Amino acid sequence: MNDTQPIFLGLDLGSSAVKAVAARNHSVIAQASAELSIQSCRPGWSEQSPDDWINAAAVACRAVVDELGSEVSLVAGVGLSGQMHGATVLDAHGQPLRPCILWNDSRSAPECRVLEERLPGLAMRAGVPPMPGFTAPKLLWIARHEPELYARIRHILLPKDYLGLWLHGELVTDRSDAAGTLWLDEARGDWDRELCEISATDPAWLPSIHPGTARVGGLRSEAAKACGLPAGLSVFAGGGDAATGAVSIGATRPGRGFVSLGTSGQLFLCTDGYRPNPARMVHAFAHTLPDTHYQMACMLNGARPLAWHAEILGCPVAELVASAAEADRARAPIFLPYLTGERSPHADPYIRGAFFGLEDATRRAETAYAVMEAIAFTFADAAESFGESLDAAPHLLAVGGGTRSEALLQLIADCTGRRIGRSDGAEAGPALGAALLAAVGAGAMDQTELARSPDVTLWLEPGEEDALIADRLTRYRALYDALAPLSQPDR
């Protein structure tokens, strides 16, 4: 290629992999990923080693650099994206004191009740009621259960910002990742000392907050060598994966929305201001761009149940999805996809997955269909939680690895009654968004260009009302109501 326009890298630290992309303008020209694993040594626990993030980021970045070849000289900056809410606690030297407690970890449910008792108005200030996925209750858990380790804490970073510390050496975050901690006063856009106090958090431990387009440092020589990039290369703040996913498809203006299908799932709507809706478990958060906010329903399990089912059966996900087309829907079991509890709309860290209605005639096709349908039902619940506010979005675009399945997207369209569009590069999602933020920060792109919607290559229209799906959705919701009490730890 002889194009001399600058190239920007985006690194997305996900739960299952670190993805790296190289983008020119809005187009991905190279991408690679390196897998990660999650450790769960006790029920409800979910952790990762920060060292694994660094190693995976170096592998993914080096693979993209190798694919670029001589064009690596055109790389003008790196943007960051990552899984939100993880508690990475560091000592005075910036070294992790323990594995990071992740977004889908439910151990701090008792601490959430403590936070609500200490500050009843917390949800309106922080954008969402306290739930164990967020960072603040995790810190209170550490203070109560690991006091010796807690006494050594001097810094707290979100996952992508720990990767950033390795890349550029600064203790920083962006608005959107700060929003997912429960320490941010969403309306003011700054750390809230009272929210910190009730969660045993010293505000001095928290990083400085920047817009996602801010240059926050230059690439350290050690990181540069590991990634195959020049030392001093500009690194930009980026955003939490929900916000960077939004940037990748132009959801930076009010009325723009999307569905995200990764390990977790999100239904996202950009709003014209701070619009808290805690009664429906709809998150109201600061976007990574200045003076911009969004509402989001977050489902902890996303497309992960499909991967789980494929692992259990020992077959590729694509093969499992293909088999679902042969299912007898009327005889398929009902599946609850809550492998790691659920956030929106139930705020229930204890609920777990289940099949109901298995019979001797049940085949793989029926269980595969049930899992796909359950993922779509979580989006139906999310859409209902938004109420009329979702009507501001004429359609929803789709991002994330789960968008590979047209059948799954069609089910989501049918169950939500919403038109859904998929574009080329939809799988790149947050990593592409991070690269675009870096391009704006470096002056290679105007911020207004972030509102550009990608060309949609596939539209999924909601089908006619399906009596069978409606009946199965009713049974799905009734199954949750029946099983939720059995999942509580104090029964």
Task: Give short descriptive properties of this protein.
491 residues; alpha+beta; seven-stranded mixed sheet; six-stranded mixed sheet; 16 helices; 35% helix; 21% strand; globular
Question: Your description of this structure?
Answer:
- The chain is α+β, with helices and mostly antiparallel strands and 491 residues long.
- The protein contains 16 helices and 23 strands.
- A hairpin with a 2-residue loop joins strand 2 and strand 3.
**Distance between the first and last residues' Cα:** 64 Å
Radius of gyration: 21 Å
Q: How many distinct beta strands? A: 23
Mean pLDDT equals: 94
Tertiary shape: globular
DSSP strand (E) fraction? 15-25%
Give the % helix: 25-40%
Number of helices: 16
Walk across the major sheet and give the strand order.
17-18-16-15-21-22-23
Alpha-beta classification: alpha+beta
What is the makeup of the main sheet? 7 strands, mixed
Low-confidence stretches: none
Give the secondary structure arrangement, pairings included:
Elements: E1 7-13, E2 17-24, E3 27-35, E4 47-48, H1 50-68, E5 75-82, E6 88-90, E7 100-101, H2 109-118, H3 122-126, H4 135-145, H5 147-150, E8 155-157, H6 159-168, E9 172-174, H7 175-179, E10 184-185, E11 190-191, H8 193-198, E12 208-210, E13 215-218, H9 221-227, E14 234-240, H10 241-248, E15 257-261, E16 265-271, E17 283-286, E18 293-299, H11 304-313, H12 317-324, E19 334-336, E20 354-356, H13 364-386, E21 396-399, H14 406-416, E22 420-423, H15 429-441, E23 456-460, H16 467-487
Parallel strand pairs: 1-5, 5-14, 9-12, 15-21, 21-22
Antiparallel strand pairs: 1-2, 2-3, 4-7, 6-8, 10-11, 13-14, 15-16, 16-18, 17-18, 19-20, 22-23
Helix pairs in contact: 1-6, 2-4, 10-15, 12-13, 13-14
